[in-house]
Model the fold of this input.
Amino acid sequence: MNWQKLREARRREGSYLLRSNLTGSDPAQLWAFYLQLIEVEQAFKELKDDLGNSQ
Done:
């Protein structure tokens, strides 16, 4: 077993890695953008489900 890789994996457990083309931005602002994106995607999903159920 590779103990070093196991330690690294456990250290990152529960963490997110966000990739962005926005350079020089505050990490907190990038996280806020990500949370907004999740909310918008959820709203579209719910609207899509509503349209699908209305037929």
About this structure: The radius of gyration is 18 Å. The chain has a mean pLDDT of 86. Residues 25-55 form one domain.
